[in-house]
Design goal:
Order of helices and strands: EHHEEHH
Helix content: 55-70%
Shape: globular
Largest sheet: 3 strands, antiparallel
Strand order of the largest sheet: 1-3-2
Structural class: mainly alpha
Number of helices: 4
Radius of gyration: 12 Å
Strand content: 5-15%
Length: about 70
């Protein structure tokens, strides 16, 4: 099931701005874009965001998180 960025942000506990930033630095996979340009997230990307959130909470920096995700 595809979800929009606001519902993913609530589910994962990150701001929409943070999710967009993680995408921009290729920390997570790119979401699917609708014809309207909106981002739609699948389970894999939501799992990546949950993983990064837990890693950041555990003290890993963004570069370390990138290595762990990829």
């Amino acid at each position: 099931m595809m979800k929009n960025i606001s519902s993913v942000a609530k589910e994962v506990g990150l701001s929409t701005k943070t999710i967009r930033y993680y995408e921009s630095i290729a920390l997570t996979s790119e979401p699917i874009r609708g014809d309207n340009g909106y981002r739609y997230y699948n389970k894999r990307i939501i799992d990546e965001l949950n993983f990064v959130k837990r890693a950041r909470d555990a003290g890993f920096n963004l570069e370390e998180c990138k290595e762990l995700v990829h």
